[in-house]
Design goal:
This protein is an alpha+beta fold and 733 residues long. The chain is 63% helix and 10% strand.
Length: 733
């Protein structure tokens, strides 16, 4: 019942969203039927169109727009590919609609020009107008698809107006095109077969067509802005996807510039502009499919770099010929001068390689970013290494210099420890432990997965580590790079040598701590075993002896054995009571059952109550912890309390237990005589406390109190865990 009001109170767009989500789920479930049916309809429409062209000898490159039918067919194929790999993706549906519209609409025009050639003109014009209207209606879907790329959603809620404007443009364009019999309702263009209905709707076309042609630039600019917003906010994968879309846009812009420059100025075969432009249009869905399916996604940088080089070299050669052959030839009055042509060709041959190298360098910098020069790298290396900065900072700085100098997308510093290579630092910075493992064989060979180049770092023949980087496939390692890596390896040997010593020291420290943890665990286990033996053995025997003495005293009293015998038995019973109590105190001191059963706070509270001075216990945020953690804190607090009672001469003490920032800490403070920090000597108790805490990664701190006395504190790192982590230990608690 509580869910119903929320549904009725949702925003107005909630219902369309739910409708769209439901249909996307349906498309994802029935993708085989949808994709197969759409491809079947597209193939049937394309075959019908081609058959009509061949049978009725229609002009394929003329008004029928045959190249565009084939070019827009790429939308249908890539829509099927996207729908298969990304079920329910909205771009798959839009591309299928764009791909289906071209053959079906142009088939209507072909029918009007072919089979209906002998029919009344009004009927033929109606068919042609319907075909033109279909293409005008679906064209606004293209900028919508660009705005939805790559995830099938709008960039944000602020873009909710865009689908409504697309729908308005489609309605206006389709209506105006049908009324005028021309694309978009452009009455200035001669319709194929005239306007339908004898031109009675031309006034409607004249009113709607300007609105349609005014909305198209708005939609195209908006889709470009949406792509730019996504590129600025997106992650690395989304940016690579958007680069493919940018490449398609670049191709279309270059084709448009070529058409503007050559149209009317250069003689081209009939239909060449339409063929080239349709090929550019076909590249749009192909690039989108590559980006969404992510097959060869990261090859976009290679393609962009080579495209920039190709276009720049083509412009250079064309410009050189234009200046020398056309310009100078016009000045001397002989544009066809053979000597100028030969001289220009020779000049191009001489300048081509230097220009290509410089353009390639510029293209790589534009696509991959700026790289530092070897001199800058070595200077930074020499300046930074002796500064005495932290070891981790030196390694990270070395990785950053390696990436900057080689233009690598990923650089790693490896340290060799006991025959294993460990990633010590990476650029871009991330956790080195996440890096794939590297191996080195006894002969000195190093294998780093996915590395473009690996440079070993040695000192007097001893392998200290390695420098590795990953670079794009079209950016091979040059002798210049190898020389730079060799010089960096020589300069970095001191850093890696120190890093190896630190890694070995860390290993030894961890081994020592593990050994301490095992010793503490063995001691605690021995304590628990001794406590159980005392409880189940001597304590039970003393309790039984006490019960029997009580029975003997009762019998002696009844049988009138004499006051002396009764008093002796009573005295023995008191001794047994004291022995039982002493034995219980001893067992609690060895390992308290209350700590095992009810936790740290209850166990310490039981002990604090027995303190001979005023004591206060406070606990903040405590829960149950690992058995070793609880035992360590328990015995450290008891040792601190015992020292206070025996040596501090204090009147009161306070104990604080707190769990903060994943660390369990304790602090025991007294108002006693204090101590001299220069003369204090750690006895066995304090040493045992420090060893216990250090074994679990903790620390012990002893300081003078604010108002005199001593403050003993310590903390242990603890992981978040609930009672369910120790079900066997806390059963029944």
């Amino acid at each position: 019942m509580s869910g119903e009001p929320s549904l009725t109170q949702q925003p107005e767009l909630a219902a369309p969203r739910r409708w769209l989500a439901a249909h996307r789920r349906w498309l994802a479930v029935h993708r085989r039927i949808v994709i197969g049916g759409a491809l079947a309809v597209w193939a049937a429409g394309l075959v019908t169109f081609l058959v009509l062209v061949v049978v009725y000898d229609l002009d394929f490159l003329g008004p029928l727009g045959g190249p565009f039918v084939l070019g827009f067919g790429a939308f249908a194929i890539t829509g099927a590919v996207i729908g298969w790999h990304r079920p329910g993706h909205l771009l798959a549906l839009l591309f299928l609609v764009l791909g289906l519209a071209a053959p079906l609409s142009n088939t209507l025009i072909a029918v009007a020009l072919g089979p209906l050639a002998a029919s009344p003109l009004e009927l033929r014009a109606l068919f042609a107008a319907a075909g033109v209207a279909a293409t005008s209606m679906v064209f606004p879907l293209l900028p919508l698809a660009i705005a939805l790329f790559p995830d099938g959603r709008l960039p944000s809620r602020r873009w909710r107006w865009l689908p409504w404007v697309v729908g308005l443009a489609s309605t206006l364009g389709g209506t105006a095109a049908f009324a005028a019999g021309a694309w978009g309702g452009d009455v200035d263009r001669a319709p194929l077969l005239g306007a339908p209905f004898g031109g009675d709707l031309l006034g409607l076309a004249e009113a709607l067509s300007p609105l349609f042609f005014g909305l198209i630039p708005v939609l195209l600019v908006s889709s470009g802005v949406a792509a730019a917003v996504r590129f600025r906010r997106g992650d690395a994968v989304m940016r690579q996807q958007l680069k493919w879309l940018a490449l398609a846009a670049l191709v279309l812009v270059l084709i448009a510039l070529w058409l503007v420059v050559t149209l009317g100025a250069v003689a081209t075969p009939p239909g060449t502009p339409a063929i080239v432009l349709s090929a550019g249009v076909a590249f749009v869905p192909v690039s989108v499919a590559i980006a969404l399916v992510r097959h060869g996604l990261y090859d976009i940088d290679v393609v962009l770099s080579r495209t920039i080089v190709f276009v720049t070299l083509a412009a250079f050669i064309t410009g050189l010929y234009a200046v020398t052959v056309v310009g100078i030839g016009t000045l001397i009055g002989d544009p066809t001068n053979l000597a100028l042509t030969i001289g220009t060709t020779a000049l191009v041959a001489v300048l081509f390689e230097p220009v290509r190298a410089r353009v390639q360098q510029w293209a790589n910098r534009a696509v991959y970013g700026r790289r530092a020069t070897p001199y800058e790298i070595l200077t930074s290396l020499v300046d930074d290494l002796p500064t005495g900065s932290a070891a981790e900072d030196q390694l990270e700085g070395l990785a950053a210099l390696l990436a900057d100098g080689t233009g690598a997308r990923h650089a790693t510093i490896w340290v060799q420890v006991d025959g294993d290579l460990r990633a010590a630092a990476c650029a871009p910075a991330h956790d080195p432990s996440e890096h794939p493992a590297a191996t080195c064989d006894p002969s000195g060979g190093i294998d780093v997965p996915q590395a473009t180049h690996v440079e070993p770092v040695r000192l007097d023949g001893d392998l200290l580590g390695a420098l590795s980087f990953e670079r794009r496939r079209d950016d091979p390692v040059t002798p210049h790079d190898r020389e730079l890596l060799a010089q960096m390896a020589g300069q970095a040997s001191l850093v890696l040598g120190n890093a190896r010593l630190r890694e070995r020291l860390r290993d030894r420290i961890e081994e020592l701590r593990a050994s301490r943890r095992r010793l503490v665990a063995a001691q605690d286990e021995a304590r628990r075993k001794l406590e159980r033996d005392l409880h189940d053995g001597a304590q039970q025997q003393l309790v039984a002896l006490k019960v029997k003495l009580g029975l003997a005293r009762s019998i002696a009293t009844k049988e009138d054995a004499g006051e002396q015998v009764t008093d002796a038995i009573g005295e023995l019973s008191s001794i047994a009571d004291a022995a039982v109590e002493d034995l219980r105190d001893l067992a609690r001191g060895i390992y308290p059952p209350l700590l095992e059963a009810e936790g740290l706070e209850r166990a310490l509270a039981s002990q604090v109550q027995r303190a001979p001075i005023q004591a206060e216990l406070r606990a903040e945020g405590l829960r149950r912890y690992d058995r070793q953690v609880e035992a360590t804190v328990y015995f450290c607090v008891l040792e601190a309390v015992r020292n206070t009672v025996m040596h501090a001469g204090a009147d009161r003490l306070s104990i604080l237990l707190e769990d903060r920032d994943d660390r369990l800490g304790f602090r025991v403070t007294d108002d006693g005589c204090g101590f001299d920090a220069d003369e204090v000597v750690h006895g066995a108790g304090l040493t045992n406390m420090a060893d216990r805490l250090d074994a679990l990664g903790g620390s012990l701190v002893i300081e003078a109190g604010v108002d005199g006395g001593v403050e003993v504190g310590g903390s242990i790192p603890v992981r978040a865990q609930a009672l369910s982590d120790r079900p066997g230990e806390f059963a029944g608690v």
